[in-house]
Amino acid sequence: MHVVETDVLIVGSGPAGACAALALSTYGVPHIVVTRYSRLTRTPRAHITNQRTMEILRDLGVEDEVLAQATPQNLMGNTTFCTSMAGEELGRIRSWGNDPLVQAAHDLASPTRMCDMPQHLMEPVLIDAALARGSNVRFSTVYKSFEQDEDGVTVTVEDRLRGDEYQIRAKYLIGADGGRSQIAEDAGLPMGGQMGVAGSINIVFDADLSKYTAHRPSTLYWVLAPGATVGGIGAGLVRCVKPWNEWLIVWGYDVSAGAPDLTEEYALSVVRQLVGDDDIPVTIKSSSAWTVNEMYAETYANGRVLCAGDAVHRHPPSNGLGSNTSIQDAYNLAWKLKLVLDGTATPKLLDSYDAERAPVGKQIVTRANKSIGETAPIFDALDGLSPQTPEQLWANIDARKDATEAAAKQRAALREAIAFKVYEFNAHGVDLNQRYSAESSTAVVPDGTPDPGFERDRELYHQPSSRPGAKLPHAWITSGTRTVSTLDTVGKGRFTLLTGIGGEAWVRAAQAQSLDIATVVIGPGQEYDDPYGDWARLREVSEAGALLVRPDGYVAFRHADAAGNAEQLLTDALRRILGHG
Ligand code: FDA
Predict the structure, then answer these.
(1) Is 35 in the pocket of ligand 1 (CB under 6 A)?
(2) What positions does the domain FAD-binding occupy (predicted)?
(3) At 211, is the secondary structure helix, strand, or coil?
(4) For residue range 44-54, what is the model confidence (pLDDT) as tens digits?
């Protein structure tokens, strides 16, 4: 059988596979992507794109392209609860950073803005850029099986155009083959949780709904209607794909009864119920059934086979974590593969991928499923959970307008239940507080300081930190007349050492390493200055101290002050990180 050779084989061109391809092509690592279909995804699927993902896309040079196509943050934020788009409104929550206080937190946390970038627009941006940088992408090519030995992985694939099979011999295999991952199964990755906890239907349609959105622009409109708590994701959802003409409805079904027959007539009836205005012309584009899952892999790798994305964490769209976490997995993995493949690091570095990302995967699966349950109090406040006859639900909704004590209580309960959805729609900490532990990851060097924990709710509030295992804090600094983020000084596939006046020994120590380390000195008269004093407030080390930042923007090592033995300290840190220890 014909055998093709490469360094890395990526199976899948979804957010995980596409980001892996983009990062590896940016770093100059030879690789091949194989993907089942003749095209990228056609349906909008994942869409909320958080600040951490935007930081990654900024480093990989595609932030502007994404922003040019995405729905901007200011049009995302009036998450509305209603009986239908045309029906009665029950309340709103300012979401996705559009609450003024949360917006300030977003501005302080990152140089980027979150946006709404549907997956069918995101994948082409990632794959086009990867192709332009040398990625080799084979469509209509299906993964069949793999065998691994000490030196590599031999993967059998089927070429669907030619109708035959061939083999690809790679040093590493990335299984980015989605929620039904054959690779995770073949690799025997142990899974926790369960699949198919509820049934859901996506219906994509064209309709001009601007008359129901102009006064409350939003990406999400939640519909509390009879039947809305059966299966699904907590309530009916009308989601904007392209303002304000293209939409996606998510509607549940009883998973024990199986998915309904997805005829055009059925899809139209659901659209009519959730839109609530039969005069608006509707064109159904597609319908598909899927299940809500609550499953995560306990480990992400088996030898030379590493899985990423939905292959290792499967959960509902609540909190918009699906493609974000998949992109973040791939970005965590790509630089490690590069350094192992070019001989800078030993394969031990790859153990840190699993150690760092598996806890994140478990956490987001739990969060997303919890968010579904947190919609129930809204129905509770309307006595709407059972029995759900339309008449009773509407009567309960009407009852909240009465001048009675009971109605006042109901109004308060409804306000409170909607406000509690902040954990789904404004969970800035879930997006940005991922920490990698030096106890489990060797790519993080403990600095002897105790874990300070989180001062406020870690799911809601981002807490910057320069402690090893945290993402480098963002601060606006200057270089001549340019204003840049501290995050702009790191990345690009390289380690970076940040120090200030008095940190010359750290700069020399970085330059003395065989590894290429960028150096950044911040202070008056240096290449960078800190005119606002923001960096001084955030860095948590003295001016002459040092932070060593990994190519993925995470702090790997820090030292509080100048050190006479800076070179030795840095060399020791790198030995641990690169697996030479
Ligand atoms: P993803 O599933 O995107 O990609 C897998 C890739 O592997 C595909 O390119 C596929 O063709 C390929 N592949 C699979 N098996 C293969 C094989 N044997 N050989 C070759 N290639 C193979 N999320 C959200 O936040 N909001 C939403 O509304 C939705 N809606 C939604 C609808 C539907 C129908 C699905 C299936 C999923 C969602 N999601 C979602 C989830 C979101 O799409 C998901 O989290 C990300 O796409 C995960 O990205 P991955 O790259 O890991 O997998």
Answers:
(1) yes
(2) 5-368
(3) helix
(4) 999 999 999 99
